[in-house]
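Below is our example:

___
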Amino acid sequence: MTPGGGPGGAPGVPAGLDDWPGRELSDEELDVAYNVRRKAGPDLFARHMERYRAESDAAVDGLPGRPGVVYDEASGERLDVWGADGSGPRPAFVWIHGGYWMALSRHDSANMARMLHAEGVATVVPDYTLAPEATLEEIVRQVRASVAWVYRHGREHGLDPDRIVVGGSSAGGHLTGMTMVDGWQAGLGLPADVVKAALPMSGLFDLRPLTRVYVNQYVHLDVPRAAALSPALLPASRRVPAVFVSPEHDGLGFLDQSRRFQAHWGNGELLAVEGRDHFDVVLDLGDPDTSASRALLALIRAL
């Protein structure tokens, strides 16, 4: 869908899509709905970030892998492959980190690698150039290029290019959504079904509300660009199986976005996770007995 004003629509809003999430809220209310770092508070947020790095380090310690592979020559960005042990091509779970497109890295984002290795699955964790150094369009291009790398070069690293599942949290959930939609695969020489399933956690699927909150100081979106970068507004003729993970204590904006996009997608489950917030739900992927891990493994085993 191409952004642009429509008859009777607000300037810069696609025709027929005026009722976007949070349109009726004030800027202050939107900031509350989408500022999950403030919701957590500085002490809890810092503890979450410490756990991200510590649990990722522990998960990959001694694990077979190939870290630091350049997947995109244009940007020089790298990815890590974990848990491919030479026993044959393994399904590849491509995990895209969050951080509102402006924080975190692959080094904070591999906490699921050991659990998946034990289940016969490899983990691929790409970096991408952070905002504001890169535009959001460039970040999307890089993430899609990481999927293309897995498809083209995965077999050399013990990955099965025909069993690629993409997941991500928060901004990574948005980027996951941008691999689920149509219109990009052919340009990279990929089959339309290159992504076989998806696990967005606390994702952002309609970016228009973010033009009015603090994060826009870094991503610099206007409404037409936000619409063009919104999975909920883009064509998707093939609705891949998906689980939309929605933690109980997430920000209200993220809860609303997951609910709306799951209903729009139509081929997936909304998984409500009790007792978890926007940040610690990611850490559940390190434990095979959590609902998030069971959902991910079910997606992979169904391929």
